[in-house]
Each structure stands twice: as structure tokens, then as C-alpha cells.
Amino acid sequence: VRMCHCSARDAGDGRFFEHMLTCDRVRGANRVFRHNVILAAMFNCIQKLGVMAVVEPTFYIYDDGTSKRPDMTCFLENPVVTDLVISNDIENAVKAKIDKHEAAAKRIGHEFIPCGMTIWGEFDPSCDKFLRAVFRHLPRGPRRIAILQTKRAMSEAWLIGTTSLIRGVTDHSAIAMDLFDVDTPFDVAGTTTSGP
């Protein structure tokens, strides 16, 4: 009988996997790793396709005075900002990201578009909207290819991150570095190491 870290047991009803992906006891490093490995895949694709981007920018000012950071700003003629969210309640999670970051982005003339995925790896329409905005400078055919390549890399990263989450892997660095052939501006295992 399979058992979660919280001692919940697999009842054989097919819902144990979902429990493993959403259990509060599994939060922390493994979920941060899944998020960051997907973000790194997205960032690397965007950079390779010629868009200058920065991860976890610190130049946004929030009304409540707190220090928050969206996940990425892409510097285009009209800069686009995103925050990646992975949730089993994607609709509300995407709305929460908009509430959190949109005003700060607008304040300096940037467009905020969240990028959502379900815990099952499905892309929310917000992800397509963000990627279309990032690659809007490309002609239609290459733009479609750029979006598909980025989503493929994100899907592969989701698979590795989710597998790590389920298996409870704690040493993520070797797994993550095998994924990417370029350096990332942050530690995919969970902490920012550099930035503007």
C-alpha cells in the first residue's frame, strides 16, 4: 500500500496521485524545484529564441509596500511580465497572480500575463497568451514553432519536476543541470543566485 508523507494511504480509488501532487506536507523544496525547473526551461527557450529576459526582477513597486517578484520579465518593445503558477485550481490561481502583479507591472508600462499549468501538466490558456506576446515579433510560422518548442521544454521539465515531487527526491541539482545546456540565472533547486 502506497503512503504519502502525511500518512494518507492509497485507497485504490485513483485519487492518490492527485493527493501526492497537492498534499500540504509535500510542499517546500520539491514543489519549488518543480516550479523552478519549468521556469528555467521556459527562460532558456525564450533566451535561445532571441528575447532578452530576466528572472525574478526586483524593480516593480507594489501598493502594499511589500517586496514581491514576478518570475520573469521579457524585454520587448512592450515588455511582458509573467509569474508561473502550477495548481489544481488553475482558474483561481491565475486570477490571484493577476491580482498580485498586474498593477505593479502596469505602473511602469509593462504588460502582466500569468503563465498557468495544472498539476497534471496541462497548459492554461494564459500560457499561450504569454508565449504569443513574447514571440509576437516573429513571423507567424516561426512564432508557432517557438511557442511549441517552449511548451515542449516546459512539459519535459514538468515531467521531471513532478516525478521528483512524487519520489521525494531531495538532491535536485544534478537532475536540473542535466536538463539545460545553458546556465540559468538562478538555482533551480530553489534559491535565486543572481539577477539584475
Topology (elements, then pairings):
Blueprint: H1 16-22, H2 29-48, E1 52-55, E2 72-75, E3 80-82, E4 84-87, H3 90-107, E5 111-112, E6 115-118, H4 125-134, H5 140-167, H6 173-179, E7 186-187, E8 191-192
Parallel strand pairs: 3-5, 4-6
Antiparallel strand pairs: 1-2, 2-3, 7-8
Helix pairs in contact: 2-5
Mean pLDDT: 84
Q: What is the helix/strand order?
A: HHEEEEHEEHHHEE
Q: Tell me the span between the first and last alpha carbons.
A: 48 Å
What shape does the CA trace take?
globular
Order of strands across the main sheet = 1-2-3-5
Radius of gyration, in Å, reads 17 Å
Proportion of residues in β-strands: 5-15%
Largest sheet: 4 strands, mixed
Helix content: 40-55%
Strands, count: 8
**Tally of helical segments:** 6
Low-confidence stretches: 191-196
Report on this structure.
The structure is a single chain. This protein has 196 residues and is an alpha/beta fold. Helix content is 46%, strand content 13%. The protein is built from six helices and eight strands. A four-stranded mixed sheet has the order 1-2-3-5. Helix 2 (29-48) runs antiparallel to helix 5. It starts with 15 loop residues before the first helix and ends with a strand.
Short description:
Helices cover 46% and strands 13% of the residues. By secondary structure, the protein is an alpha/beta fold.
Features:
alpha/beta; four-stranded mixed sheet; 6 helices; two-stranded parallel sheet; globular; 196 residues; disordered C terminus
